[in-house]
Write a structure and sequence with these properties.
- The structure is a single chain.
- The chain starts with a helix and ends with a helix.
- It is built from five helices and no strands.
- The protein is mainly alpha-helical.
- Helix 1 packs antiparallel against helix 4, helix 1 packs parallel to helix 5 and helix 3 packs parallel to helix 4.
């Protein structure tokens, strides 16, 4: 691999993990009281739980699409958003956070493992580079929404 390729991979990993000049997804999800997860403040259409679960589902879908020709994506948009405003079980929140971290780690390993420019064989022009940028963009967008909800709920730093 060229030095430029190595630099690009390192920068993509930074982008996926977040931080730098902005709060990370972990920052946004840390320390939220369980009784605030299902609140939809000021008439907004989603709760923190729904945003986090949406991030998990979409990131998982992009990861699996990138790896598996037999992967079937959920039905858009219905299956990308949980219907319930709050987690059904107390452990569901922790499972969602762990799944987000595990799938991001797996995507980073995918970035390191091959040609990020090559078209994904079972796609219609997508590459691992494109999927990495889409995961980062999507997660960043919804991270900011979570922070906004936390501000509206009075639970942000």
């Amino acid at each position: 691999m060229s030095e430029q390729h190595d630099i690009l991979i390192k920068e993509l990993i930074k982008l996926l993990e977040g931080g730098g000049a902005h709060a990370t997804l972990e920052d946004a999800l840390e320390g939220i009281p369980a009784d605030k997860l299902g609140i939809k403040p000021h008439g907004l259409p989603y709760s923190i739980w729904q945003l986090a679960e949406h991030i998990r589902i979409a990131q998982w879908d992009m990861l699996e699409f990138s790896k598996d020709a037999n992967h079937q994506s959920p039905k858009w948009p219905d299956d990308y958003w949980p219907k319930e405003a709050a987690p059904e079980n107390p452990g569901d929140w922790d499972k969602t956070i762990e799944a987000i971290k595990a799938d991001r780690k797996a995507f980073i390993e995918l970035l390191r493992s091959g040609d990020i420019y090559a078209a994904i064989p079972h796609g219609d022009g997508q590459s691992i580079l494109r999927e990495a940028l889409q995961v980062a963009d999507h997660n960043s967008y919804h991270t900011s929404e979570i922070i906004l909800l936390r501000r509206l709920l009075g639970i942000w730093k």
